[in-house]
Structures are given as structure tokens and as C-alpha cells.
Design brief:
five-stranded mixed beta sheet; elongated; alpha+beta; 2 domains; 176 residues; Immunoglobulin-like; three-stranded mixed beta sheet; 11 strands
């Protein structure tokens, strides 16, 4: 009787394994992803409309390049960035925004007008996601030319107005 019980348990385990694999294969065949949040459909046409937008290194980031154009009946968010040397080390970045609310608790969720977070880029390379008005940067490469801070929706898509990215750019002085 004991051998039958072990054989039955073994067959159940094998059945569960194959059921799970078949489920994942069905999900993959239907383009279902399990990465924690949904991405809007993007097309090469939507990417070609972006001007002066930083380049990204991963397909995941490229999916976030589909812009959200601010409707005419909505107050346009603005951002102004200031960079100051920290008295102890590194730099402090201060963001002044209007018509925009930082909403870290909604990151990765659906778009809501005037809410989201910011992305920080150094020379087009994404460095961080910002959830508030202040951010400490421990080090900026000596040869860096600029910082760009973009306003992004909860679903990570950048905000645009009049076909222009809503961002603030800080030109960096190089000591040569």
C-alpha cells in the first residue's frame, strides 16, 4: 500500500509541473506578461514622433517612450530643476513643479492626469526615478554634459505638450 501512495504522489507532482508549464505556454502564446504592470501597445510610428527624447538601453524602457499628450482642457504640468553642490558630498537636485503631483504609491499603475513621477537622465542615460522634489546625486561623471529631468505618468509614459517633452535640462560646466 505504501508504494502506491508514493507513486500517486509522484504522478501528482509531475502532473502539476506539466500543468504549470502548459499554462505558461498558453499565456506566452497570448502575449500575457507577468512583469508587474501593463504596457501600452507601441508602434514604430509612435517612436518616430518623439523628438529630443533620451535613448534607452532596454526594450522595457523603450516601451515607456509612448508619450501622453496633455489635453487642451487640462492644466499643463511644468518642471524647473536646480542643481546645487551638497556641503558634505555630491549634489542636491531640487525640482519645482506646477500642475503636477508626485504619486509614488501609484507608480506602475494607470495614468491619472497631472500625477506621476520624474525620470533623471545624465547625457541621455536614465539614472533614477524621482518621487519627490529633492534628490541627492552622489556623483556626476566629470565629462557629463547635461542632466535632464522628465515628468512621467504613473505608467512611466512621458508627458508631452505641443509635441514637446515636458522636461528641464541643466547644462553642466566641464572644468577642462
Amino acid at each position: 500500500m505504501r508504494k502506491i501512495d508514493l507513486r500517486f504522489l509522484g504522478l501528482c507532482a509531475i502532473g502539476a509541473l506539466f500543468s504549470g508549464l502548459i499554462g505558461f505556454m498558453i499565456a506566452a502564446g497570448n502575449k500575457v506578461t507577468f512583469d508587474g504592470h501593463k504596457h501600452p501597445e507601441s508602434t514604430p510610428e509612435s517612436h518616430s514622433k518623439l523628438t529630443n527624447f533620451p535613448t534607452h538601453s532596454s526594450n522595457h524602457e523603450k516601451m515607456h517612450d509612448s508619450p501622453i499628450h496633455i489635453a487642451k482642457n487640462i492644466a499643463v504640468p511644468t518642471i524647473k530643476a536646480k542643481l546645487e553642490e551638497d556641503p558634505v558630498s555630491g549634489f542636491n537636485l531640487n525640482l519645482e513643479t506646477r500642475n503636477f503631483t508626485f504619486a509614488p504609491e501609484l507608480s506602475g499603475l494607470e495614468h491619472k492626469d497631472g500625477m506621476g513621477h520624474a525620470h533623471l537622465y545624465i547625457d541621455g542615460q536614465k539614472i533614477a526615478r524621482l518621487y519627490g522634489n529633492w534628490f541627492h546625486i552622489s556623483e556626476i561623471p566629470k565629462d557629463a554634459k547635461s542632466l535632464e529631468i522628465t515628468l512621467n505618468s504613473n505608467d512611466h509614459r512621458p508627458f508631452f505638450v505641443n509635441n514637446a517633452l515636458i522636461s528641464s535640462i541643466i547644462a553642466l560646466e566641464n572644468e577642462s
